[in-house]
Design brief:
- It is built from four helices and eight strands, in the order ααβββαββββαβ.
- The chain is α+β, with helices and mostly antiparallel strands.
């Protein structure tokens, strides 16, 4: 069947459009790792997570790629402070960072972490090299732990009015690719440190604040 000039022109235009769409999809899938959620992802956590290399969250093929979205909530100051940042792929949790103000002692906090299954797998201590704790909480009064695709921090905080509390920070990454690799563990611990630093300021902890190093290492 032969086409007249107008028909050939329409066919050529259609093929060009289809080709451009196909190329755009492939390029977008390859170079936009958070397609569908790039801007929300950048804004959702106050740019806390944006600088972090998130390659430990696996991506699927161009034809079955996850659509990444985020949910973010932050409320209150003092002992009312709460922080939650969730990264989802096709409505499944890939990473969840949380902060709560707690008055629990270390053992009770550890028991709560275990009960909630927030530090699964092999537990390893972290060295997050914090500065001097607030007056009344001197010494190494913090806990920093790494689990498979997870991390948990408990940091001292003295609130206005003199109340001594701790910030309980947890990061879990169910969508991580290799939960027990050292590199991935330290990346997740770094996320926990970033979130902790943010919440120390938002909570209103009094100086000197126990600011954690954002490049933690494993404790010897």
């Amino acid at each position: 069947m032969s086409l007249n000039p107008a028909g050939r022109k329409r066919l050529t235009t259609t093929l060009v459009v289809v080709l451009c769409l196909a190329v755009g999809t492939i390029v977008g899938d390859r170079f936009l790792p958070f397609r569908g959620g790039g801007a929300p992802y950048r804004q959702a956590c106050g740019e806390i997570l944006f600088p972090v290399d998130m390659d430990f969250i696996p991506q699927t093929t161009p034809t079955g790629r996850r659509i990444i979205t985020t949910e973010f909530e932050e409320t209150g100051r003092g002992d009312e402070h709460r922080f939650s940042c969730m990264v989802l792929g096709d409505d499944e949790i890939l990473l969840w960072a949380r902060v709560e103000v707690t008055s629990l002692d270390e053992q009770a906090w550890r028991d709560q972490i275990e009960e909630r299954r927030l530090l699964p797998g092999r537990e390893r201590p972290l060295d997050i090299v914090i500065n001097r704790a607030p007056e009344g909480l001197e010494g190494k009064d913090y806990t920093a732990l790494s689990g498979d695709s997870s991390a948990a921090l408990r940091l001292p905080c003295k609130l206005p009015g003199g109340k001594n509390v701790h910030l309980g920070v947890t990061v879990t990454a169910p969508g991580a690719s290799d939960g027990d690799s050292d590199e991935q563990r330290l990346t997740i611990a770094s996320i926990a440190s970033r979130v902790a630093y943010h919440s120390i300021l938002k909570t209103g902890c009094l100086s000197p604040m126990p600011v954690p190093d954002q490049s933690p290492e494993f404790a010897s």
